[in-house]
Amino acid sequence: MSSPLLAVAGLSVRFRMSGGRTVAAVSDVSFDLAAGECLALVGESGCGKSVLASALLGLLPGNAEVRGAVHAGGRDLLTADERTLARRVRGRLIGLVPQSPAAHLTPVRTVRAQLAETVRELTGAGAAALPDAVLAAADRAAFPADHLDRYPHQLSGGLAQRAATALALVGDAPLLVADEPTTGLDRALVDRTVDELRRHVDDGRGLLVITHDLAAAERVADRVAVMYAGRIVELADAGTFFGKPGPRHPYAAGLLAALPERDFTPIPGMPPELHALPPGCAFAPRCPRATDACAQRPALTEGTACHHALDSAHA
Amino acid sequence: MLELRAITAGYDRRAPVLREVDLTVADGESVGLLGPSGCGKSTLARVAALLHRPDAGQVRLAGEPVTGFRHRAPRAQRTAVGVVFQQPRLSADPRLTLRDLVAEPLRATGRAAHVPERTADLARTVGLGDDLLTRRPHEVSDGQLQRACLARALVLRPRLLICDEMTAMLDASTTAALVGVVEAYRADSGAALLAVGHDRVLLERWCDRVTEFAASGTASEAAVA
Amino acid sequence: MTHTTAPPAPRVPREGWTVPAGARRRRRDYRALRVRTAAALVVALALAVLAVPLLFPLDQQAVDLANKLQPPSAAHPFGTDDVGRDVLLRCVYGLRVSLLVGLVAALVASVLGVCVGALAAAVGGTTDRLVMRVVDAISSVPHLLLGVFIVAMFRPGVWPVIVSVGLTHWVSTARIVRAEIHSLRSRPFIDAAVSGGASRWRVAVRHLVPGVWPQAALAAVLMVPHAIWHESALSFLGLGIPPHQASLGTMTEAARGSLLAGDWWPTLFPGLFIVIPTLAIAGLAGAWRERINPRRRSELML
């Protein structure tokens, strides 16, 4: 086993808001991602998933503060300056597959022009080599060459997604981060999109998928990290998580049970506010298994942060 | 409850999104309308909610023919249909607190006296606490905002509820919770439901019957599955 | 593959909180400085035009030929003009006229523009198209030319200038308001209001006008410098404020002759008094525009 592509250790992100409030968006998150592996980060909206992605790419707003370390490509991304991030990290080390490709592409330029610009910027290809490099880049994301001269609004949702993926792949980044790549797409398109992302994993890239769509996560991921109130509460193999014996954290179990193909019953209550987290386990107020022990925050041990983890025989 | 006959509708008369579509929702029935994105199912939902005038075809609501759309529809007809949209951020006025958002239809129809009682009642039903009700849309999550939008759709006690991709942006637990609220309301009031979406598993679990929209905007008719 | 037992990669988590590197913070600080400077300038100028006339009355007709064209000194910080009048005092009086014209004219133009734009958008159809063609026609004539026509119909003075600015500048506000209402009207929350039984009037008053108002107010603030320049230009051409009355335009015009003789101060200082308030107001308006931009608001959304 090689050393991981991405090693996140004890990462916390908080925002200083007006009035002295602080919002703890991400708390003490640690995980590794190896080449040829896909990790799905799942959780409800507002649980801090997207903030985590922003932190990896150095795109946090000015009132953010961070703690911990994010190692990738031999450097700590949290301490890297803007210049290094722009020249060495974004696009070259980490490619971002955006949430809404239509908004990510410039509406006034063709796909070819946008790809050419990115290719020139990231690979320094000369004018002679550029047309071929653009074709190769389009091909890598399975974007059809005869659609290169179209404008983004002339593309279907699936093709727009491929165009955005092609842009993310230009720099041959070993690590891809996909932030909610399937939101608002219909089921067939979701399947196609995640299958294509999976193809890049099988080509040896590392992929971090951030999503609230459990079906998409099941389809693409090797491992699943469940995030709740800014913390990873469960980190498990996708096979055991979605299949037998199933998740061990009550929240993860509740999330799966809420799927329409399963029990279709919601978890009672709502997630806590990130500016007023309870001192103990953040899930305890909604948890059917909570006891007095839950006033102490459980550590993430053996892939689960719970004092009363469901044992493997449960499911 | 709702009868759509040979509806042709769109945003450009030369290229209608829908051609001659029929759809019927009986009293108390829940119908799922399934189709890929861009097939015109949202347009059909807008026609059914009297928010978009079709180019041709007839709409009957509770047996009455509909003669006008949007403001031209009589208020009683408009408010008989409750609508929840896909994107809660776009369907909430950013300047109103969630409490005012839920209460707005009551105030608009001159029933301001019912505001405290109805909003408290509905906030409990959809699971919004007092603290959340005082916030504005940009201070809450998508899930919380969609709960408020559902409460707004229910506040006038509609006899038909239209959910246009209501849960497409939401996580599994919130989806199940909102569907639970809709079903509890229907059990209580006997209202009919038209749920539009692209998630077959969800719609088949949720609705009495699922009608499939053929791919592409030129669907000739909606076949009953 | 095992994952929880990660290799001992170079991972030394830091203890304390740090602000991640990046240019955003610097840009924020620069923005704060810009806003503070602009605000301080606007307050100082407002105080000057309000307080100075109370403390130092100005005789518009007074002439002191013995002291004509004195360069800046302790007694006359901005020097004196070609008939011996103190340039600083006249600049303040001139700015007073300019600001008065600017504020009132911007108000008149904005009210007119909001009414016309909102009406056109609300009624829609042929009326809308007709009104917007009138707007196009008016904006196709250069503002200054149209302004000259209007002031030429009256005797020189403050009010004709205000009418002139008001009647030429409302078109841009009308366009902004109309476009904004059209874009708001297609949002789902308007659909939701219609479905909730709201009347046309209620939709307009409760949802559309409050949505347009920040943009309209911003346009009004940005119009103040426009109006100041328009007034100065008309006065410079001798069509605005009467020549003996202190106004930034008349002062620049009167000082043209002495500029040729190398006496720079009677032109420079009134010029600065036109430029500095313009930049200060535009700076404040720019900060406000960033504030009401919803994209910035959502920056912190989780």
- Give, in order, the helices and strands of chain A: EEEHEEHEHHHHEHEHEEHH
What gross morphology of chain A would you assign? Answer: globular
CATH class of the domain at 1-75 and 191-225 in chain B: Alpha Beta
Largest interface: A-C, 46 and 28 residues
Separate helix tally of chain A: 10
The second-level CATH architecture of the domain at 1-75 and 191-225 in chain B is: 3-Layer(aba) Sandwich
* Secondary structural class of chain A: alpha/beta
Largest sheet, strands/sense/barrel of chain A: 6 strands, mixed
Strand order of the largest sheet of chain A: 6-7-8-3-9-10
Note the overall shape of chain B: globular
Strand content of chain A: 15-25%
- What's the arrangement of strands in the largest beta sheet of chain B? 6-7-8-3-9-10
The beta-strand count of chain B equals 10
Cα-to-Cα separation, first versus last residue of chain A: 31 Å
Average pLDDT confidence of chain A is 87
Give the class of chain B from helix and strand content and strand pairing. alpha/beta
- Count of extended strands of chain A: 10
CATH superfamily of the domain at 1-75 and 191-225 in chain B: P-loop containing nucleotide triphosphate hydrolases
CATH topology of the domain at 1-75 and 191-225 in chain B: Rossmann fold
Order of helices and strands of chain B: EEEHEEHEHHHHEHEHEE
Which residue ranges of chain B are poorly predicted, with pLDDT under 50 across at least 5 consecutive positions? 215-225
How does this structure look, described?
Chain A is α/β, with parallel strands linked by helices and 315 residues long. Helix content of chain A is 30%, strand content 21%. Chain A has helices at 49-57, 82-89, 101-104, 111-123, 130-140, 157-169, 187-202, 214-220, 238-242, 250-257; strands at residues 6-16, 22-33, 38-42, 64-72, 75-76, 94-97, 175-179, 206-211, 223-228, 231-237. In chain A, β4 (64-72) and β5 form a beta hairpin. Chain A is globular, with a radius of gyration of 20 Å. Chain B has helices spanning 41-48, 75-79, 98-108, 115-126, 130-133, 142-154, 172-189, 200-206; strands at 2-9, 18-25, 30-34, 56-61, 64-65, 81-84, 160-164, 192-197, 209-212, 223-224. In chain B, α3 packs across α4 (115-126), α4 (115-126) packs across α6 (142-154) and α6 runs parallel beside α7. Chain B starts with a strand and ends with a strand. Chain C has a domain at 94-301: Orthogonal Bundle (MetI-like fold). Chain C has 11 helices and no strands. The model of chain C is unreliable at 1-13 and 295-302 (pLDDT under 50). Chains in contact: A-B, A-C, B-C. At the A-C interface, β1, β2, α1 and β4 of A face α1 of C.
